Amino acid sequence: EAVPRCVKLLSVDPANYPDAPREGIRRVLEAATGVPHPRGERLNSSRIEWIRMGTTVATNALLERDGARTALLVSKGFADVLHIGSQARPDIFDLRVRCPGVLYEAVVEVDERVVLAKSEPPGEESAARRGLRRVRGETGEQVLIEREPDLDALRGKLAALRASGVEAVAVVLMHAYTYRQHEEAVAALAREVGFAQVTTSSSTLPMVKLVPRGYTATADAYLTPHIKAYLASFVAGFDDDISKVEISFMQSDGGLAPADSFCGFRAVLSGPAGGYIGYAKTAHTPGGPPVIGFD
Q1: Is the pTM of this model over 0.85?
Q2: Residues 6 or more apart in contact with residue 38 via CB below 8 angstroms
Q3: Which is the most buried residue in 51, 110, 120, 149, by most CB within 10 A?
């Protein structure tokens, strides 16, 4: 029968170990098997069935504004849409309203346009006569393609961004929640130009509202490179058998995601969510007294 073991370590202690979760696993393996696992050597993972963990890597990068250098690619005419936001004010009578900062450092407007096809009023020239292509979106809505993305014009702008050191891009186009083809074409071009991290709003949060969809996409582009770098560093400390181990990470919603699909926007509250669920599972008994946790 398995015996639970608890190890408490400092999150950062470079004088003693390079990675706290991996050091915790090393100590548990030694205690459980009685076999030495020397510090500084790759861990033998043959006795590990699965690893489930939460991380504050994304949380800290967001709080400290230490994410990847990111650019926003948005439909022409909407360069300031995420800066303007929803105009929501936590304190409606505050005379010194401070506009929240954004996670991207550059904006490139994509010359494209998709509009929803609505019933045309009498006397208005029909979409067909204007030469607009009508297609059925993923939500069942009819959309009109007014302009395809001008990829030739966009290529030079993306190349200049990449040359300047920008690492990641978020692609946020109008009505991409139902018609994602324009975002996918722009994303393919960005990868071709050399961006390793390309996030499309239609793949992260395919919802109607442009602003929350854009916030989610930019957060993902900004944070995912840090998540991938951390995962690579964590796995590098194990032997080759780690590929046979089921590694899952806590998401912000409290669910688990496989390591290969764990990304920035899913990881913002990974650590807090893991702490909350772990605390609730270990400290609270159904029907027992209420408990309060402090972190």
Answers
A1: yes
A2: none
A3: 110
